[in-house]
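Q: Mind making up any chain with structure tokens?
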Amino acid sequence: MKINWFKYAAPMNFYSLAGKLIPFFWIAAIAFTLLGLYWGFFKTADVLNDQKQYYRIIYVHVASAWMAMWLYAVMVFWAALGLIFNTRLSYMMASATAITGANMTLIALITGAIWGKTSWGTWWDWDPKLTTFLILLFIYMGYLALQSAIDDTRRSDKASALLALVGLAIVPVIYFAVNCPDPNECASLHQESSLKRVEANILIGMLVTTLGFWMYSFAVILMRVRNIILDRERKTSWVSKLKEINQ
């Protein structure tokens, strides 16, 4: 049977679909996150015997940092889709994604600061690798602030979408700052990309934890977009009927 996916571009239809998908993403998020952290904390003991135990925070730090950049690209995708096709659901998805992306960026910065204080003796170092990630958080916050500052939903959606497109330039800058071609020119306290010289056993923990964070992001984004749909469609007949059913 052929499925007409375009029908889910309507907020009413997507609201129902999202509600069915959320439990599966939550189950996957909990399972993969616990498995990844268990592997990282208990299956890499031999690998990390010569390292300080604070090294284990890398599983949360790396996963949240990867997700922060990936979610920004997803937010830009939905924002661009909204600008091109003027679809309401696209703007709603972008808005829901921004909050999760900002949270992941904040987690990456906090865990990085904890690592830095323990490893280098300082909470912060103004180098490109850290500063660009802080800028990413500011862009997320600017996107959310701009949406809240404009009362007209259509204007706020378009204005914040344009800001997201402009801010996309920071993502490749962050990538090349962490994966600098010439480490001598990009010398800083922050280590190089964790994928370059990481043990296979540690990489498993990183990837599985990241997968858990990925599933978590899907779950909370769908939950948020359902709330946004209810708020923006509150005057429609289908939302009124839904409220009557739930009362």
Q: What stands out?
A: The chain has one domain: 29-45+52-235. The domain at 29-45+52-235 is CATH 1.20.120 (Four Helix Bundle (Hemerythrin (Met), subunit A)). The chain has a mean pLDDT of 84. The first helix runs from residue 11 to 42.
